[in-house]
Amino acid sequence: MTRFQYIALGITMMGLNLDRASADEKRPHITIRGIYGGVPTELLEHSTLKDYGVNAIFMGSGNLSAERITLLKKQGAQVFAEFNTMHDASYLKEHPDAAPIGVDGKVSPPPQGWQGVCPTHPGYRRSRMAAFRKVLNEFEIDGIWLDYHHSHASWERDVPDMPDTCFCQRCIAQFQQQTKTELPDEPTPQLAGLLLAQHKQTWVQWRCDVFTDWVREFRAIIDETRPSALLGTFHCPWTEAEFDGALRNKLAIDLKAQAKYIDVFSIMPYHARFGHADDPAWISRQTTWLGNHLGMTGEPGERHKIWPIVQLADWGETVSVDQVRSVLDHGTRRPATGVMVFNWGWLKEQMPKVEQMGEYYRAIRQ
């Protein structure tokens, strides 16, 4: 059966299966039913987003265009952009001094190929802020989501690779000045050892504060250029206890501090990718922790929102068609008030999963 025959059959089956949706399957607290990964043109050739219960599309800021936004708005969808903050590796080609420095005083190799950038490099920060402002000025989007807003690391896997960084002279000097911490005149390896032991608590908090200050500036730019837009973040789904506190200690993510500026937290509980292929309930356990951590219940009127991005496409481990409903069920439980699926680039080749997604989205909407 061809992809388009799957689509036609799926639309028919969704209409039939909708009758099976009982009243308790409705989830009016879920206001966003999204797809991540660009415009699903394969669906629009033979149907509408409404046919699949979709009302939001998330795409990379580099893929935005006025034509695409107009098309999606006509489909009744909100449009949200993804913005890469700390993973613009191309910047390092002309600015090698922006590369993160490891505990040995040398440039830290990209873990699993994921190249980060030093968060205190002033030129890099200016370039990212200018690009962020440009997106908001040029495109009528409903929100913009920070992505890769963490330190130099590869954590989207069951066994993360998270080197300790950045120990460049600039970072160490700013740390000493801003925390009023005196360090001896020693080579970088010795200083790194002190920062990760004797001064660890101060060092970790300072690093978190650096990344939070980026978020503060992003918020200020939104308020100046497109105040109606939401500021969201795609972020690591771990609790603060997992992997020896790596959320803060390694990745420099302080969720409570960032909450002052963030509207929507899009936790990334890719259950199969993270070693929980047979346990979709891990998704709702992680969102429950996040809600408790930030004081969110998913009730109307709350200042902050949780919209998880859940894995339907195969990435590492396979997500079966039979698992789609369970993944979406756990992704749409309170405190979540929205959900999106990862990701269209791969899902368009797995249309039976898309049909299951559409059936579920249609069943839960009011």
pLDDT average, as an integer? 94
Question: Strand pairing plus helix content: what structural class?
Answer: alpha/beta
Query: Percent range for helical residues?
Result: 25-40%
Strand content of the residues, in percent? 5-15%
Strand order of the largest sheet: 7-6-5-4-3-2-1-9-8
What is the number of independent domains?
2
Element pattern in H and E: HEHEHEHHEHHHEHHEHEEHEHH
What oligomerization state is this entry in? Answer: single chain
Distance between the termini: 32 Å
**How many helical stretches?**
14
Alpha-carbon Rg, integer: 21 Å
Largest sheet: 9 strands, parallel
Uncertain spans? 1-8, 11-24
Give the overall silhouette. Answer: globular
Q: Strand tally, please? A: 9
List the main descriptive attributes of the protein structure presented here:
disordered N terminus; 366 residues; alpha/beta; TIM Barrel; 14 helices; nine-stranded parallel β-sheet; 9 strands
